[in-house]
Amino acid sequence: MDLRALRYFIETVRHNSFTLAAEALHVTQSTVSKMVRQLEDEIGQPLLIRDGRQLRLTDVGKVVFARGQDAVEGMRRLTREVADLTELSRGELTVGMPPMVNLLFPPVVKRFCERHPAIRLTLEEAGGQRIEQRVAAGELEVGATLLPVAPALGLATRSFGRYPLQVVGPRHAAWARASGPVSLAALRDEALILLEDDFSLTRRIREAFGDAHFEPRVAARSGQWDFLVAMAAAGLGSTLMPAPLLTRLNIGPELAVRPLAEPALDWHVALIWKPGHYMSHAARAWLRVCEEVLAQPQR
């Protein structure tokens, strides 16, 4: 059986469209259609029922789709393992990295590239929840996120940093008038500026507010941590920021900064991977370098 034709068929089913499958595969639609017909001819049975713009699997098509995914994944693993025989003399690695967490990784990237110059390293930015899902699905070998990770994802984790959260906002905010740590209850009626909902930090903050039995008043959202602070400086509301990030910002006199009182709600950063699945030598090397560089006393 032609594995390329099988792959084209699988992508067509996943996208429920010849056109979208062609875009994902970077080929023409006619090529995808031809390969699917070739696979049907080889099997001797129709695999897809073309109903207008919709595609439906036949009984045989369901079996081929289910078993075909195993065959394609097996070939991917074989290819990776054969390439690994060169012992890191070539290859590539993509690491999932949330935009805020990536500020901790320049020393790791530097040492990894110095030690393994033939490995093409790509840092793929996305929210922590998206990174977790992609690692769980096998789309990424390794990534970083915030703990805790949903147990249902079945991911292995390795903590490398735990940092307190700081409340940052206008000096006229009610919580800023008192000295000392700020409780979540003190933020009940405050306008808050948070990261987008696909960020793990936002998930943790919302869970903490839920445990405190009230909803946060979200005035604005952004995917950029420096813009959150800029909006706070403009008087739009208050935000929660990990302590290491504040050292990289110019906090003006118009802003107040106080530690968050809840120590359990911190910025707990970890590496993640899927246990029990093949891990390339490049991914293992990445974890080793992370161990070396990030094994610093946690603050």
From TrEMBL:
GO terms for molecular function: DNA binding; DNA-binding transcription factor activity. The keyword Transcription regulation applies. It comes from the Bacteria. Residues 1-58 form the HTH lysR-type domain. The keyword DNA-binding applies. It holds the Pfam family LysR_substrate. GO terms for cellular component: cytosol. Keywords: DNA-binding, Transcription, Transcription regulation. Gene3D superfamilies: 3.40.190.290, Winged helix-like DNA-binding domain superfamily/Winged helix DNA-binding domain. Belongs to the LysR transcriptional regulatory family. This is LysR family transcriptional regulator. It comes from Zoogloea ramigera.
